[in-house]
Amino acid sequence: MEQNCFFPPHQGIRLGDLANRIGAELSDAAGADRLIHGVAPVYRAKPGDVCYMLSRKNRDELQDCHASAIICDKAISSIVPDNIPVLLTPKPHTAFALAGALLHETAMRPSYITSERGVAAGAFVDPTARLEAGVEVEPTAVIGAGAEIGSGTRVAAGAVIGPNVRIGRDCTISAGASILCALVGNNVIIHPGARIGQDGFGYAPGPKGGMIKIVQVGRVIIQDHVEIGANTTIDRGTMDDTVIGEGTKIDNLVQIGHNVRIGRYCGIVSQVGIAGSTKIGDGVMIGGGTGVNGHITIGDGVQIAAMSGVASDVPPGERYGGIPARPMRDFLRDIAEMAMRASERQKKKGGKDE
Q1: d(C-alpha 52, C-alpha 70), whole Å
Q2: Where is 71: in which H helix or E strand?
Q3: Exposed, middle or buried, 260 (CB in 10 Å: 0-12/13-18/19+)?
């Protein structure tokens, strides 16, 4: 692969220092002074790269691997060639994530669009808005009346911050995002095109068969260390608030309805739709393409398989899947039974043809 101009290599971290920073054990102290400049997959890693392995299925890729180090569990370290130092850890995926953050710090959040710093001449900041020292606003961004933004926060080109919105410190508001009727914590990342705080989808039956819009006067509360993906939409509450808990990570193209409350440290994958007034506990993981019914409760620690339809409450700690979503053991049993019946029908059809 040609040199990546978007994410250039690091100037170099000693392998021994990298091992200490990510909490891994270096298998061969003789390699401690090797310089690591970047990350790469096993099959095309070159000198200066570090990569990681999770299973033995990558064995064949090692034939073309020239990495300066491989992160892996001790259980599979024996398949790594002797000339490649190993960083031993029981959590190679986590260790690799830490290494990547050290080697490619600029890739950890959306980058600057322009080279200007401070408040650009081409930005519009309402005179009544309050920006702490160190806030950066790029050209064509708009900061509304009474808005408050904390130091270290960057508002990218074309972003819109509505009236009276409050944004904490060290946040990144990416290009084209809009934030209305919201209170945003510290160290929050909002990716391009996200829409936060617009009114929710609420209507009452009209007198002549049409629909009458229900007023939406709640807010969106986004707590610290949340990340919100590109083109994700989070509606403000009807009368209560829509809340995204601390440390939760939301992928691209997710729809979160009004009054939804999502707990701390959840993971919500692309194309999930969560209908209004649903309550989601802490540490919940929801697979891509899942639809979640409104006015239900999903307990702490629940895992929902991709492409599921969650129609009713899910108890804490459960693993659900399917449409309608049900305990994973029941879902897998149903799939096995359907496969068996399909096979039997095929056999009967084949016998008739003979």
Answers
A1: 5
A2: strand 69-72
A3: buried
Reply yes or no on whether 258 is catalytic. Answer: yes
Q: What is the pLDDT of residue 353?
A: 52
* Interstrand relation of 326-327 and 49-52 (parallel, antiparallel or unpaired): unpaired
Return mean pLDDT, the chain.
94
Question: Residues 318, 304: contact at Cβ < 8 Å?
Answer: no
The pLDDT of 155-179, averaged and rounded, is 98
For the record, the structure tokens of 240 come out as: 């209560």
In degrees, to the nearest 5, what angle opens at C-alpha 192 toward C-alphas 123 and 197? 85
DSSP 234-298: EPPPSSS-EEE-TT-EE-SS-EE-TT-EE-TT-EE-TT-EE-TT-EE-TT-EE-TT-EE-SS-EE
Rg (CA), the chain: 25
Question: Which position among 104, 191, 258, 295 bears the catalytic label?
Answer: 258
Q: Give the CATH architecture of domain 13-108.
A: 3-Layer(aba) Sandwich (3.40)
Give tens-digit pLDDT for 21-53. 999 999 999 999 999 999 999 999 999 999 999
The answer to whether residue 351 scores a pLDDT higher than 70 is no
* CB environment 35-44: b (16+ within 10 A), e (fewer): bbbbbbebee
User: What pTM was estimated for this model as a whole?
Assistant: 0.91
- Other CB atoms within 10 Å distance of the CB of residue 167: 25
**Backbone torsions φ then ψ of 305, nearest 5 degrees:** -70, 155
**Which pLDDT belongs to residue 352?**
57
Max CA-CA distance within the chain?
84
Domain ranges of the chain: 13-108
Q: At residue 100, what is the residue type?
A: G
The alpha helices in 144-239, defined as continuous H runs, are: none
